[in-house]
Amino acid sequence: MQTIAHWLDGKTSTGSSTATAPVTNPATGVVTGQVALASSADVRTVVEAAVAAFPAWRDASLAKRTQVLFRFRELLNERKQELAAIITGEHGKVLADALGEVTRGLEVVEFACGIPHLLKGAYTENASTKVDIFSVRQPLGPVAIISPFNFPAMVPMWFFPVAIAAGNTVVLKPSEKDPSSSLWLAELWQEAGLPDGVFNVVQGDKVAVDELLENPAIKAVSFVGSTPIARYVYEHATASGKRVQALGGAKNHMVVLPDADLDLAADAAVNAGFGSAGERCMAISALVAVGSIADDLVSRIAERAKTIRTGDGARGADMGPLVTAAHRDKVASYIAAGESSGATVVLDGRAVAADGAADGFWLGPTVLDHVTTDMSVYTDEIFGPVLSVVRVDSYDEALALINANPYGNGTALFTNDGGAARRFHNEVEVGMVGINVPIPVPMAYYSFGGWKNSLFGDSHVHGTDGVHFFTRTKAVTTRWLDPSHGGLNLGFPQNH
Ligand code: NAD
C-alpha cells in the first residue's frame, strides 16, 4: 500500500510521525493509500525548508521566475489528464469535471505569468523639491495554504502560482481525503525548474494546521474549507500576527423570475446543483422559484435530473460518488430530515442504481420541493446532490431571503428583464453574482471570494487581490541632487 508523504527540499519524506489516515477511492470503497499525518515537529521541518529557500527565491529575477512559471504552465497543460485521473481516483468527481478543475487552476498560472506587470510600483518625481518617491511590492516570506477536499488541485492553484511568482515560498497542507494531487504538482514544479524548497507539501490534519497557524516563520495563511474551521483559522492565525484569508462554506441561491427562459433555468439548476455531486462551494443548493412558475420549473428540473447517470467517474458517468461513506450518510440524513419536516421529495437519490462498484459511496440527484426556511435542508450547507426548492411570491421576498442568509458566496438570477437584473446585482449581499449564469466563478484576472460567513479576511483570491495579499508595499522617499541644508528642524516633514 502506497504512503502519501510530505514534500520538502525537492523530495518526499514520511517525517518522524507514524500516524497515517486511509485514502479511499469513493467509486469503489477501496483504500488506495495511507497519507502521512505530520506531527508538529514534522511541520516545523517542512517550514524550515521554505524558510531556507526564501532569500534566493525572493532575489531571483522576474525573468527567471516567469521562465519557471511559463514552463510549469506548459507542462501542466500537456499532462493535465494525468492530474485529472488522480483527482477522480481520490475525490470521485467524473473525469471531465476533474479536467475542468485543472483548467480553471491553469488560468491562475497563466495570470501569474504576467507577474512583472502586476508587481510594478509607482514613481513620483518631485513630490517635494528634488525629492522623489517610489513604491515597490515585496514578497512576505514563507506562506501556508490549507485546502479542502473538493478541489484538490484548483484550490491550491488559486494561491500558489501568485504566491510563488511574487517571490514567496509555499507550504501546502492539502486535505487528507485526497492528498495525492499535491505531490504530483510538486514534482511538476521541480520539472519546471523551480528551486527546491520554494514549493513544499505537508500532509496532515488539525495537528499540522495548528502548527502552521502558530509557527512564527509563516507570514500568511490562505485557507479554504468549511465555515467553522475558516473562522477558527482566521482567529488563530491573525492572533499570531499573520495575514489571513479564510474562505468558508456556502448556501448558494438561484432565483428564477417568472419571465425567465424556464428551459435555460432548468438546465442551469441541474448542472449547478448536481455537478461534482453538489460538492462545490459554488453549487446551487437553494432554488428560489418566484410566482406561478414553480410547478412548471420543478417538473422541468425533475425530468432532466432523472436522466443523470450516477456512477464511476472514470467510466464516463455524469455524476460520481460522494467523497466518503460518512459524508454520503450525512447527506442522506438531510433528505430524511427534509422529508419528515414536510418537504416533498420529487426525486429521491437514496434509491439510485449507480453504474459502479457496490461499495461506492453513491447518492443520486435529489430534488426537494416546498422547502421552508426553518428546515435543516435550507439552513445548513449540505454539500451533496440535493436541490431544495423554496417558493416565494415576489422578487423582494427572494432578495430578502438571500440577504438574510449567513453565507454570501455565490448567487444567480434567471430573468429576461434587464432592470430586474440590474437591481439584483446592485442589491444582493453576495460576493459573486451570475445573471443567467448559475456558477459565476470569476476568471483568474478578477478575484474570487464570498461575503459574510463565506470569507473571513479582507482579500479575495487571485486577480489583483491575490497579488496584494502575497506582497507588501514599501514606499521609498529619496533625495539625491541639491539636498537642502535646512539645519535642525524637529517639526514633522512637510513638502515644499
Ligand atoms: P474542512 O473545513 O473539513 O477542511 C478544510 C481543511 O481544514 C482541510 O485541509 C482539513 O484538513 C483542515 N481541517 C479540518 N478540520 C480541522 C480542524 N478542526 N482544525 C484545523 N484544521 C482542520 O472542509 P472540507 O470538508 O475539506 O471542504 C468542504 C468545505 O469547503 C465546504 O464547506 C465548502 O463550501 C468549503 N469550500 C469553500 C470554498 C470557497 O471558495 N468559499 C471553496 C471550496 C470549498
Automatic annotation (TrEMBL):
PROSITE patterns: ALDEHYDE_DEHYDR_CYS (PS00070). Residues 1-21 are annotated as: Disordered. GO terms for molecular function: methylmalonate-semialdehyde dehydrogenase (acylating, NAD) activity. Its EC number is 1.2.1.27. InterPro entries: Ald_DH/histidinol_DH, Ald_DH_C, Ald_DH_CS_CYS, Ald_DH_N, Aldehyde_DH_dom, MeMal-semiAld_DH. It comes from the Bacteria. The keyword Secreted does not apply. One of its GO terms (biological process) is L-valine catabolic process. Residues 12-21 have a biased composition (Low complexity). Residues 17-476 form the Aldehyde dehydrogenase domain. Coiled coil: none annotated. Keywords: NAD, Oxidoreductase. This is methylmalonate-semialdehyde dehydrogenase (CoA acylating). The lineage of its organism: Bacteria, Bacillati, Actinomycetota, Actinomycetes, Mycobacteriales. The gene is mmsA.
